[in-house]
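lol forgot to send this yesterday, sorry. struct tokens for the thing we talked abt
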């Protein structure tokens, strides 16, 4: 839903990830609420595999989150491996099963942490 950029926090001399809600999306109240809910959810979780939320803001008409930058693989890399683009369509079941397992693991962890969905 958002665009994520690698950036430098010059005050604290650290690398961060900035997630920006694109302007064409921020006009939709439901999507803006979803972005705010994402920020509240991230802030409520504490786990080594979940990035820390450093800041939330709105500037010049743009909503953003400043997050801990985590070096490593993307979720797509972890779940389905890097298949050639034309091969992914031939192996959708493998990716779907792995994604379902990830969703189940994340959902179970969130529920144990007190996050409620709905």
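and heres what i got for the seq, position by position
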């Amino acid at each position: 839903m958002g665009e994520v950029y690698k950036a430098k926090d010059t005050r604290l001399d650290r690398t961060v990830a900035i997630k920006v809600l694109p302007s064409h999306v921020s006009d939709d109240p439901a999507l803006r609420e979803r972005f705010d809910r994402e920020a509240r959810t991230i802030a409520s979780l504490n786990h080594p595999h979940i990035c820390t939320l450093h800041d939330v803001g709105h500037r010049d008409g743009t909503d953003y989150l400043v997050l801990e930058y985590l070096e490593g693989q993307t979720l797509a890399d972890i779940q389905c491996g890097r298949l050639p683009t034309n091969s992914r369509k031939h192996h959708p079941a493998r990716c779907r099963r792995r994604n379902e397992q990830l969703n189940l693991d994340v959902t179970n962890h969130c529920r144990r942490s007190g996050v409620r969905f709905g």
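Residues 92-112 form the longest helix (21 residues). anyway ping me if u want another try
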